């Protein structure tokens, strides 16, 4: 087990990396390298692979283990790498964690197990059991829309006592909840509280959040880093200006097509249009058809004009 | 139908008033007057009666109509009065609205009908049908946890075209949603966007929201007005300081007891402890038992020390 | 309070009556009389007005009270009349109940209050409070899709101890739940357990259920009575034959159009096509457009051929 | 791909086998053999491994592949073996399926992917994609409480056209839904429709269902086989008598403790008390504490007296 740092090193913009794929079973390695260099050049403070945005649960384990190794190797210590080990089977979470440790990753991220419905006491038991067995520090990952359970503020507080649990990524979108957790944890500022949805990153950082695990930073890393810095500096005018661009991305890139998967399809499609990587999506998701892709391209070009 | 104002008069802190009751069938009139004077003295920008915090759906219609008249009479034009007309039967919503108009209220607020599950097109049809028949301008009221439907950003945009629909109160707590609506409506700033949960009021005002319909303003109106003003002025240090007090209220007053009703029980109990009004709650809710009330009192006294 | 009967008089087919309307504010009285005579002639064992199928929550209170009086007067003791008093305000439930008692109705039906989310202990408190104040015996009404709460088997058992609570109508469609309640209540067979969805009436009666509160009995009362009798008699071949017709009605009449309201729109439209009453629906619902109505007519004619 | 049989061989009682474990990583092989012999001696028509009852999603892949081989080897053709391949990653589903084919299993079972929320068209695409690649015929598995999606009757009908999709196991508990699917599929009786919850097995078989995938058949296989046969023969008196025993099991074994996992904990605990196998549960679930285990034992002994 690692020692918990006095002041967390985890702050800022940590993109939840999409996973560039050639097909169901094969990484787009060239795309992966290009994407990694692109976001690091943009100034991000770390990378998070194998999250929801990375289609983690759709990938074979061979591919997940391979992605961990390839990413850590190519990053080569330039920024910390966080690795998603979310799984319904703790044995598989631990195997992924060991690969991550061997490859040089810095920390792990795990959402609650997402098949059985658990109560909060069962959730506490689960996370303590898991954290006891992980070779790297762990971020909790709140994702109620996908896991069917909210990690309640009292549960976060209880789990924060574990030496190996160092923070929370909240993707609920519910800042009333997030602010309650922030308040609950006010005595332990080294416990890092990140939000997922980029639409709320600026305001949570203004009020004490640690940063954003924002999908859009795959495309425009510098924009999100600049927005984070503006928020840290309390520069409200700059925050408003850059936040408006993020909202433009949210409306123009993530809201095409039907179904809950429009965010992922739009993001991966845009990265392809930006020349960074392939836009193949692993089953059960599928990339956009031509009509939506054309609309996406048109929106993306408009947004690019405003950003550069 | 009224003419839609170029610049909305609706901004700031508009407390969702609790309904002081002597028993199931009778208003605590003295308490009501005291409460009204208390919040107006605190500088609030309007009052909202017959919302969720006002236990509207638990009150008989005779009592609801009576409350509208008494409130408007006692307010006597000092601030605008907004009246909740949320109902599953449009005929009853219209009757409440007519009483509100006759009594001198300024605007109406309606959540979606909450028994049948509607689709978004049915929701649009419903609101247009209702707004056509209302004698005062209407705020939409998004309350998905209670009504089982979210008023989607596109639906808000579509409904905002109606001359008699002038704003939205969002009580979802989801600021990712709220920011999407703000962005969608950026061309029509006279359409007022309020949030319900006080835990997120400051940050939404910082980024363009119109204000808060915050329960805590029943107790400490000046605190919420000061926080609103700090946010409007972009005074981040003051925002952080006052927001921390609001979070203390949220943790100490609203989170006792089990079940979703802890917010309401805590708020009404605290108003009783502050000497403002009775704490009787209409069925199906019930006030706290002694143990929780003692805890509430202890927390309240701590908070009072920090506020004054 | 009434005395609880040793052997319940409530068994068989009790149609949840649609409410014939001329417009938002006016009963279609001629249609109402025709519909009442039609179902009584078909042999039903009782009538249930002001349920979900009766659009109760969409009707003004004046209209609800009027409907109770008109129905009881026209039924004139031929069969028992059950009256829905489901409301978020207990004061209004009690007023409806008093009108029902004065008009000669036999029993009341109430779903949980459907705005606030309650826990099971709060639900027990609510029903005991209500049943204490009702002048007629009460059926619980389980309708989780609309009320956001399931009346758990233990809660049913607890509430069945109240002298004024005599049965349950379960509209969940979940017969695993229904069978658990049946088993829980096996020592008190006088507590009547009805199901709502006609698709499961036959099988629940085969295994001990009291009968069905089935919408289709508005159209074809004799079919449902015959199916009930076949099930009571354990005549499996006849059950299968008649159940297949009910499933044909379910598929052909209730499944047109989009949204959860297709059942109600189909049923009311079919009654209009059968020449029984007007098909006006109260806001927020609306009757079918021409295309769906044509399809409905075609399906209805096919079904009629098979029934007669 | 296999040829679809004219008359399905899949009928009757197919226990969803619990997975006997020594610890997180190791099968209780002796227990597994004993359990297999126990249920086959009881007359069951097949076995289903790696379902929800088998804690499939909590097991490492190594263990899952091992279980498939061990089970098929020990069954040795005495009854058909169905293998659960439910997974969020199709690549892993296919790998499990290949092991199943090599080991001599008869068919596969897959619930929808349970992390991303899909729409019905996406679900159709998913199942067609999967079935195209599977070396054995597939049963759909409806489990909305765990997967967040209901396989709608129209979707079942559409998917039934695929040569490699041969039936449905419905664990929703909602027989209104199940009867709609039965009616939808009435022209293709070779498409087998099973239910999961044993509380509804008898009634669905009475009305045309193919049988039950009932957890209780791990403990008392003969009881469930007898009940199935009584239902097939339309022997209502025998059905009622045996169904009452099943309800006693449901109430006495599956309803102890808190949380949704009480069914699994009770079932596995009872198998241990019956001397069949270990009761270790894989994380995130845990076996009962002493108090609940004592209550379980007392209930089990009562039930045993009534069965033998």
Order of helices and strands of chain A: EEEHEHEHEHEHHEHEHEHHHH
> What is the percentage of strand-forming residues of chain A?
5-15%
Q: Kindly, what is the distance between the CA atoms of the first and last residues of chain A, rounded to a whole number of angstroms?
A: 44 Å
- Would you count the extended β strands of chain A for me? 10
Tell me the quaternary state.
Answer: homotetramer
Envelope shape of chain A: globular
Low-confidence runs of chain A:
1-7
- For the record, the CATH class of chain A is Alpha Beta
Radius of gyration of chain A: 18 Å
Compile the SSE list and pairings.
Four copies of one chain form a homotetramer.
Chain A: E1 12-13, E2 21-23, E3 26-27, H1 29-41, E4 47-49, H2 61-75, E5 81-84, H3 90-103, E6 107-110, H4 120-133, E7 138-142, H5 144-147, H6 153-159, E8 165-170, H7 175-184, E9 192-195, H8 201-206, E10 211-212, H9 221-232, H10 236-253, H11 262-273, H12 290-307
Parallel strand pairs in A: 1-10, 4-5, 5-6, 6-7, 7-8, 8-9, 9-10
Antiparallel strand pairs in A: 2-3
Helix pairs in contact in A: 1-2, 2-3, 6-7, 9-10, 10-12, 11-12
Enzyme class (chains A, B, C, D): lyase
Protein name (chains A, B, C, D): Dihydrodipicolinate synthase family protein
Family (chains A, B, C, D): Belongs to the DapA family.
